[in-house]
Specification:
homodimer, 471 residues, alpha+beta, Aminopeptidase, 2 domains, six-stranded mixed sheet, four-stranded antiparallel sheet, 13 helices, 20 strands, 37% helix, globular, disordered N terminus
């Protein structure tokens, strides 16, 4: 950096352009090899929910990182697959960028809806079809491509890189806290890049600055040791009725959560965030068309629709079941009824406090016998719009894709980003090589190869600019 | 009968005793052969819900009836397995007794909980183990045994017998109305014997005089064409919430059904029925022990418990399901939610009228979009306590089992008995060879061989006494 100050500006800029072009050209020259690398990673199943292929995938990720120059460690939590931690020190740069990805994937079911077998990683029409091709293996290999380019072209990376690749993101990162607790002292740096990101429907680069939090609970109501013939319904309590009555106390028909104090800690959007939200693209018509619905809840539309989408705490019944659910009729009085609920949280709602409020709510309404098991507790994550890394990511996206970037104050989805933003206090942006028709979590998941390549250039540019930035 | 009046009473009674003893002795001598016959029928699967083995079972039943002297017809409804109708005319008796049974059985699942394979009909410890051994094949063959005894010992049956054996009882008799409509003119007689019955826990003979009715419905709430990521919960309607809110309008926490006019046509128990109910054994402790519960709904106990059990219309959630119901957590916003409900009815509630009231209720509460499909509609059935056949059955039970019989004004269960009591206007009693530990509808269903044999004698005595009775 100091060197640049001593040479004329035009020459310096031209050098920068040249150096960037070399990185881009390396990526273009080597893309076929990285497509093959991604295919190899995709052909290795890694379904965390089914404990399928996890060790093999972890080993493959660790090998890829090693091959790119990282020193690696495989951290084994008390249960579950390892978390791969890689460090790559810069010879000249002093700044440190953290990177988060995950090597686990969603289950492939229903398999019969896939055009290409989900672990074949077939290349067709400019895409790689595989479970995990987009979420999240495409991003892993795209980033590897960017980092290798620096290593091969310059023999160095512009900044230190600390890379965390976990294997349980798709099941709620149940052991990630263990890793953070142990590695906290080493997970230092100035900024971080989150796992996902990419283009919107108009091929504009998306820079996402936050995630909603989540409290995921399962309720169990048991009223007897075993099911009865429903002839007993006049005298034996039905747990499904009890569950229905309990659930109906949680939210009113206007979507307001009725648990006392639920909204106490909600931090409203700042004026700056609201301004960005106003400009954020969230196409009502595309969601309406996809779902075949005429309108949204409570008649939401426009700015109010976006504010609710990105800013409302929610209470969602993700699953409910009891009794006989097969074809035809069976007259059973069930002994057990269950429901799963995900509560999406916003800053600064604390999932542990809210879990307590939920239990108090149950007790207050006479449902203290209902078992509540907590299956996930993530607070929301939010990086300020004014963060240097947010600006670097947006500017780099514009340069690589030649389109005005879109900044998302937050996604409406959730994840463990709060470990980076809240625990490690790292400004964190989600950028990557995803595209909106990648069928993430669905059959025929795919990775567009052109975005995979351009995404690598975007990451490379962010690494370069981040390393140079003074903040 | 006239003959008997001309001979001295003692001689006549002695003759009657002798004649009865001969029937009983025939049954005892031939019981092993009938055990084998029952085993053959049990080894033939006939799971109506799965359309498994229905034709073979129907043919077997028809053959058995033919072998016992019946002329038979196999009635094929528009769909589903045939209904076997057999007629056996008495040479000397003029009265006609109708008999109802069913040859279909419940599914065998869960198979791994069976000690003996469910279609092996293994004989062990004085019992035949098989799906259907008790419900309802044991009763069919026990009755065959009684009728054959008359044929072989006397060359005649004391009265005409019209026997209906259907194949869809376990799935709600969806085509039985077709049979009744076509055969109504031929289904004439003075009384009828229903499919089930037998002994209570103290080996006392049970005479059951009625069944509750049933309205079985399935609700479907659909709010979108496909499931969404639950990140959309702030703006896209969740059908599970809508279902919960709707269900919570149907019944209050005291078990009162809130559908307008639901109780309008309820005919209270008569004073005579209440007197019998007071003496009816319904052991609270055995149900409490079986289910591991401390108390019953609303603190019901004693007479109030029995009145509710036998006399209350009920609204039971037999099944509810939506979204993700597997292990772990998945954040889905479902597009469809469903529930199955069985409403038990009492005299004189009309299921068709109540179905209309239910739909009006939904409309009144803003749930007119919720689909309601009717899966079964049976009114309640009730034979008066004072019916001659009720008295004959009780008296015969006492003679055969040497225990005071128990009359049940009604069962809390349901079935198509109303076709006999209401449509055909036949006083109908449920008696048979069941016993309370027969695991009906459960794994290890079994038929006690001693009750199977004694039940045949009971039926024989009822046939004899019915034929002789002047009413």
């Amino acid at each position: 950096m100091t060197v640049q100050r001593r040479i004329p500006l035009a020459k310096a800029l031209s050098d920068v352009d040249t150096r960037q072009r070399e990185i881009s050209e390396y990526i273009d020259r080597n893309k076929d090899r990285f497509v093959e690398k991604l295919r190899i990673l995709c052909q290795q199943p890694s379904v965390s929910a089914q404990n399928l292929g996890m060790t093999g995938a972890a080993q493959l990720v660790e090998r890829f990182l090693k091959e790119t120059g990282f020193t690696t460690e495989s951290f084994s939590p008390t249960h579950g697959p390892p978390i791969i931690f890689g460090e790559l020190l810069s010879k000249h740069g002093s700044k440190t960028l953290l990177v988060y990805n995950h090597y686990d994937v969603q289950p492939v079911e229903p398999v019969d809806l896939w055009t290409h077998p989900p672990f074949s990683a077939a290349v067709d029409d400019g895409r790689i079809y595989a479970r995990g091709a987009s979420d999240n293996k495409g991003n892993i290999v795209s980033r590897l491509m960017a980092i290798e380019a620096f290593q091969k072209v310059r023999g160095d990376v512009p900044c230190n890189i600390k890379w965390v690749v976990e294997g349980e993101e798709e099941i709620g990162s149940p052991h990630f806290a263990e890793f953070i607790a142990k590695y906290k002292g080493r997970l230092t740096g100035e900024s971080a890049i989150w796992e996902f990101g990419g283009l919107d429907y108009d091929d504009r680069p998306l820079v996402t600055l936050g995630l909603k939090g989540m409290l995921y609970v399962e309720f169990k109501v048991q009223t007897a040791l075993k099911d009865s013939h429903s002839a007993r319904a006049a005298v034996v309590e039905n747990p499904a009725w009890r569950l229905v009555r309990m659930l109906d106390t949680i939210q009113d028909e206007d979507g307001r959560i009725l648990i006392e104090g639920w909204y106490d800690d909600v931090k409203p959007f700042t004026a700056e965030e609201l301004e960005v939200i106003r400009s954020m693209p969230l196409e009502e018509h595309s969601i309406r068309d996809e779902l075949g619905i005429k309108s949204f809840l409570y008649g939401l539309t426009g700015f109010e629709f976006k504010k609710a989408f990105y800013g409302s705490p929610t209470a969602n019944i993700a699953g409910i079941w009891s009794g006989y659910t097969g074809p035809g009729h069976k007259t059973v009085l069930p002994s057990v009824a269950r429901a799963k609920m995900d509560f999406r949280l916003v800053p600064d709602q604390d999932p542990a406090r809210l879990a307590g409020k939920l239990k108090q709510h149950l007790a207050r309404h006479g449902f203290e016998d209902i078992e509540v098991s907590l299956q996930a507790e993530n607070p929301a994550a939010r990086t300020p719009i004014s963060s240097p890394i947010a600006k670097i990511a947006a500017r780099a996206g514009k340069e690589v894709f030649h389109k005005e970037p879109v900044t998302l104050v937050t996604s409406a989805a959730s994840g463990p980003m709060h470990y980076f933003t809240n625990t490690l206090r790292l400004p964190t942006v989600a950028i990557g090589c995803n595209h909106p028709r990648s069928n993430t979590h669905a059959p025929d998941e795919n990775q567009r190869i052109d975005v995979f390549v351009q995404g690598a250039k975007w990451i490379a540019k962010v690494i370069e600019d981040f390393a140079k930035s003074s903040e």
